[in-house]
Amino acid sequence: MSSMNTNDNQSCYLALMSMAEEFRTQTPPDMRSCVQCLLASLNVSTHPAIEAKTHLHLGNILLHFTTNLDKSQSHLEKAWYLSQSVPNCEELKLESASLLAMVYEKKNEMNHSKQILTKAIDESQHWIYWHSRLLFQLAQMHVDEKDYGAASNILSIGADYANMSGAHYTRILFLLSKGMTLMIDRRLSEVHPVLSLAGQLVETWNGNLQMKEALKVYFLVLQVCHHLNAGQVKSVKPCLKLLQQSIQSITAYHSEDDYVNVNPNDMFIWMPREHMCVLVYLVTVLHSMQAGYMDKAQKYTEKALMQIEKLKAVGTHPMLNTFQLLLLEHIAMCRLVMGNRTLAIKETAQALQICYSDPKLKIRHKPMIHALLGMYAMSM
């Protein structure tokens, strides 16, 4: 009788999970029905590991598809606590910690977020992928708080760990991210050695060609920005030419299936290739404006904004808003320099609308919007 109950429970659970997956993957997805099936499956007696996994799925879906952070937190906390008492659930535990840290961060509970990430990092020493991912996540949190020194130290630890673990691609990503953080922190004297080492490692890395080209784009974008920050406009041209060649190579790939023979511990992509194309347009605009080529700046801005609109038609992404905002700010400056005040104020207003859609963008770009309005007022 007990065996029959166990079999019935298992059949019931599998049926509910199958229905949940069908609702999740249909077009368009029916996330409400998916969540209902997952919640119903929790009423079926199952192994604690399966229960933890179900709570993880629920927490993940609620985090990404709803605004109900409290419910998401509740499920992820259950997944985290259950997974700690069940053997062979390390990956489930680490994923729960990562998502739970995201929830705490969204709720501005930064200390809780850092605590759980630090604990998960300590427990993930033998899981190269998860250890690296959690280090990236903690470093990003410090960057968001403008604690660039702490972020840089974490990225250094990550680079050393990846090197010892044989995750050479991930080591380069850590180094490039450290270089970017140092640039943001204006520690320019420290940027050159980090980027030089990263550049050498990119050239000698013999991994997947598509991933290697993506690393080149990351490296060259930082090189271009580094020269522009130093006011070395003429030094940018060789890097910019190589950057445009690299992005052409990346766009020649037609399928994500090209990611073959990749080390499982190196499964990181720093940016989707469609976003890389927009980024290359953006740095080209920065160079054109600094060099005084206003016509070029306008041309590349228009191309980039068209590309962003196409990508937004497929799906929204916070990075696209950032790119669009930076482009609008620069094209507005360009219009003011060329005496086209009408378009300048329209583009400034558009930039302002994007700022109001995201509190972080509003804080970050508020000084620039005020500067544009001041420049417009002076031109009048």
Summarize the model shown.
This protein has 380 residues and is mainly alpha-helical. It is built from 17 helices and no strands. The longest helix is centred in the N-terminal third of the chain and has 24 residues, at 2-25.
Could you give the topology of this structure?
Blueprint: H1 2-25, H2 31-41, H3 48-65, H4 69-84, H5 90-106, H6 110-123, H7 128-144, H8 148-165, H9 168-184, H10 188-204, H11 209-229, H12 233-251, H13 273-291, H14 294-314, H15 318-337, H16 341-357, H17 359-379
Helix pairs in contact: 1-2, 2-3, 3-4, 3-5, 4-5, 5-6, 5-7, 6-7, 7-8, 8-9, 9-10, 9-11, 10-11, 11-12, 11-13, 12-13, 13-14, 13-15, 14-15, 15-16, 15-17, 16-17
Main location: nucleus
Subcellular location: Nucleus, Nucleoplasm
InterPro entries: MAU2 (IPR019440), TPR-like_helical_dom_sf (IPR011990)
Task: Characterise the protein shown here.
The chain is mainly α and 380 residues long. The protein has a domain at 284-379. Helix content is 81%, strand content 0%. The chain has 17 helices and no strands. It has helices at 2-25, 31-41, 48-65, 69-84, 90-106, 110-123, 128-144, 148-165, 168-184, 188-204, 209-229, 233-251, 273-291, 294-314, 318-337, 341-357, 359-379. α5 (90-106) runs parallel beside α7 (128-144) and α15 (318-337) packs parallel to α17 (359-379). The relative contact order is 0.05.
Which descriptors would you attach to this protein?
single chain; globular; 17 helices; 380 residues; mainly alpha
